[in-house]
Amino acid sequence: MPWQENPGRQNPWGKQEFNPEQLIKQFKTMLGAGFSGIWIVVAVILALWGVSCFYTIQPGEVGVIQRFGKFMRITDPGLNLKLPAGIESLTKLRVQYVYTEEFGTRTIQAGIDTEYAPSKQYIDEALMLTGDLNCAVAPWIVQFRIGDPYKFLFKVRDVKKTLRDLSEAVMRQVVGDRSINEVITERLTIATAVKTGLQQAMNDADTGITIVNVELKRTTVPDPVQPSFNEVNQSLQEKERTIYEAREAYNKVVPEASGEAQRVLREAEGYALERINQAKGDAARFVSLFTEYANAKEVTRRRLYLEAMQDVLPKLGMLYIIDPEQGGLLPLLNVEEKLRKEKKP
Amino acid sequence: MKNGALIAVVALLAIFLFGGVFYTVDETEQAIITQFGRPIGVAITEAGLHVKLPFIQKAQFFPKTLLEWNGDPGQIPTQDKTFIYVETFARWRINDPLKYYETVYNELAAQKKLDDILDAASFNFLSSHHLVEAVRNSNRLLEKEVIASAGLADSVQEQIAISLGRSGMNRGILEQAKPKLEKLGIELIDMRIKRINYVDEVRQKVYERMIAERKQISEKFRSEGKGESKKIEGDREKELKRIRSDAYRKAQEVKGKADAEAARIYADAYNKDPEFYSFVKTLDTYRQTLGQDSSLVLSTKSDFLRYLKGFRDVQ
Questions:
Q1: B137 vs A262, more confident
Q2: Does A305 reach chain B within 8 Å, measured CB to CB?
Q3: pTM, whole model, 2 decimals?
Q4: CA distance B109 to B185
Q5: Do B211 and A128 touch (CB under 8 A)?
Q6: What three-state secondary structure class fits B103?
Q7: Which of the residues A95, A174, B95, B106 has the least number of beta carbons within 10 Å of its own beta carbon?
Q8: Structural domain total, chain A
Q9: Tens of pLDDT along A52-83?
């Protein structure tokens, strides 16, 4: 019953209205006079009833006062007065607190390592069709405050259910207009669109709810399809790996070939230098020789010839000397055979 | 004496409290007054303390707030013969408590009526449209560049133009059901499709399709990788050939120039006396070419041996 509210709270008026000594004296006289106990009971009930006039609203809360069920006023934090129970009733609401509703996921135990319920359990909330008629699993949370206590209390019978139903409807409407790729990659855009749409819907329904935040958790695809989506990622990695490998092979040989080319070029230049120097040397030698030769042609010629013969003849394997005047008396030579014999060993 | 007065007061209070002279209507409620079961007067929608005749009149309370309804039209074949499960919900309020009291009496019956009317309307709408109409909301262009660039035909959608969309369909069902419910004192505020899901067999097929689609994309990536790799390999070969041939060409040019230069130098020198050059060069050649393996037949008439037969001056 209403007068049981705030039991044990002292009535601060008692001390002001009555002198305590007088009160006790009166009490004793009443008892002594043999009054029936009924008056005491009535007095106690009235006192308790009076206590229900006072109530405290904590910071972050508001109190909603109804008189005989009719909405009267909203009171702010602090100590407040109202008509006693039975006439005015009080409902406290935490208007600053941010409430959270979860869809497709449940927090079992919040903490440093927050524990979530197994996602399969609430898959139905998160399973939805995308615009390209694929299935996506998109769990999300909605954070909200009580923006308008009056509407929150009096306009909708089950605000929480309304919020949950509308959240699901709005989320699916937004996801229904996006492809599976967009659902997976553009979570922020979707969350923003849902927040706007949901706030509009909540306003239309007069729920008095202010949406603080809509946040998409990890969006994915249903379990049976998951491996093939992973495979796409893998193949993307594979693609890059293959390309890197090819680049590696390229980088392995091309700079080396450039170096090799430089070497060939240098070598050619070396050859050129050598060739020209040789030519110059040969030419200089010839010119010097020629100068001497021009001075004494005959003698030099003979000398050169004989010097050459001197060099060459001792090295020869065989030297045959014939006298043409002997007239065909050439010695029978088996030159070929001799050569072969020498070459064989 | 005093006891008698007290009893009188308590009795009066009891009549007021329990006999039902006063009744309160909550902010969330509305009430009608029935007399011997028959509703009289107008509905009381104003919250607060109200008075009625005790005992013979009774107050019947109805919620004034927005009420909820959840629908389940069951398995629906859409126009494109896809079987889907649909969940719907609606919000409604009791608009005319008198009519409501007379026609449906209580909320249980009202929910049943809503089931009948709204589920049927949902079924009609969904089964006479393509699934896409219920899923999508607008003709917004979907971003599917991955699939498009894979060169796949968009077999799933064939891009049916969305004429209604989900919100249009919601509106359609609402408009169809609204007049029917007005007769029951019920105002239908909002009607929405909440969830649409494929039935299990269809879902399996959809999964298979999704898997096949992804596989194709994977293969595309792999083959792109291989293609790019081959291209780089080709570049490598080309680059190698270019570098090597370039080097060869330059080397040959350098060598050729050197050869030419050398030839010029030789010519300059040897032109002074070509005959003498050939004499000297030949002698050099003898030195280099004749050796152990050579045999030489010399005539005694040769310049070298002519003194072998005598020391006279031959000339």
A1: A262
A2: yes
A3: 0.69
A4: 13
A5: no
A6: helix
A7: B106
A8: 3
A9: 888 899 999 999 999 888 899 999 998 988 88
